[in-house]
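Here's what a typical entry looks like (Biopolymer transport protein ExbB):
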Amino acid sequence: MRHFWIALTLVLASPIALAQPASLDQLLQDIRQLRSSEQAAMREREAEFLRERDRQQQLMRQAEQELAPIKAEADRLKAEFDRLEQALADTEAQMKQRSGYLGELFGVVRQMASDTRSQWQDSLLNIQFPDRLAQLDRLASSTRIPTVESLEQFWFMLQEDMTASGRISRINAPVVDRDGQQQQAPVLLVGPFVAIADDQYLGYRSEVEVLQVLNRQPGSRDLIRDFAAPRSELADLLVDPTRGTVLAQMQQTPTFMDRVHQGGLVGYVIMALGALGVLLALAKLAWLFRVSRQIDQQANDLGNLRDDNPLGRILGVIGDQPRLEDLETLELKLDEAILRETPVLDRGNSLIKLFAAVAPLLGLLGTVTGMIVTFQAITLFGTSDPKLMAGGISQALVTTVQGLVVAIPLLFLHATLAARSKALTQVLEQQSAGLIALHLDPGAKRGE
């Protein structure tokens, strides 16, 4: 009974649809047929698996056969690599041993090439020998021991520069004029010191490898023209022994007007006050000299009183024949006349003194405004670029200098004018006192 139910379960679970059996015998026969077919399919699958296993084993044996020579070749190559690596190490050690001091020589040559490159960076002779800097760069950056040809080339360049340094040469080179136009022009090279074209000194611009006419010429064109002219005797010429450094600094050195412009608006006011003060002082000084000369002439001619000078006007207030009982009135009249003349002599001195006092204060004002500009530049751009702060610092320093330069001469001029005015006032007082003494002594003669 148990087998029956098992068979029934297999029949129901089989994917092959069976017809409804007519009897139990028919059912048993169907089950047997189904079992036989399943066993045949299992045997077929087993046979297929065995065939596939045999095929895989054959492929594996074939791969192993092919791997064996490859592995042998790899072992041979590894052994060859180890042998060559050892041979390379032995060769390097042997080369290092045989080279001796060539390594040190290589370092010295590279260092000398680099130092020479930095020395020739801004040399005027680069115009005459344009390829030597590139050769020095290759020699300085080389990673191999220099050859004999390289060393000879380096020596030849040094000898060439030495020879050219003591020679005057005429070449054609690109020259940039003051308008920025570049053109080929004949250039006179005086060693590595100066270059001349069209009777003007030239400066070397290493970044573009051209010569440029200097904005500020150190000498007269006649001196250059005489030197460049054909001749048999010696001629004078201004040269730069620093090989262009002095000429470059000359281009950057500000002129007097540049300094004035650096002071800004405050600087212009200071210079205007100074000029006005000096003109007033000189005019007043000339006027005082003229008045002094007129007073001296009047003192030598007291018999003919004139009103074109202070002494004549003072002496004219008493008349020709004063009476002795009017001496007190005479003194009062003379004092009054002197008091009228004194302000005229002192006129303008206080204004000049005011200019002398205001000039340093304006300089201080320019200093404060310049420092404000400097701190504003620091706030906006930081301290990475000092050129951004140069304008404010220049204004701060220049206005201070301008204030002092204006104040000091004005103080001396004010002191001179005050002393001269006081001296003329004393002369008037002395002459007045002498006149009173003359009237006290009727027997004395006027002028004695």
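Residues 27-164 form one domain.

More examples are in the samples folder.
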